[in-house]
Design goal:
Blueprint lengths: L1 H10 L14 H8 L12
Length: 45
């Protein structure tokens, strides 16, 4: 699933992307996407 997010980021580099995942998996996405050269906004409210 992280691969899908990465592919979407590559296909839309100048766009904002909202990614919603279950509470059990959000730490995994955060840890993996922090490795990429993107601006990650974690826990938006």
């Amino acid at each position: 699933m992280v691969k899908w997010v990465r592919n979407e980021i590559k296909s839309s580099p100048s766009k904002r992307i909202l990614c919603i995942v279950g509470a059990d998996h959000n730490y995994f996405f955060k840890d993996e996407l922090e490795k990429d050269p993107i601006q990650l906004m974690y826990r938006i409210r």
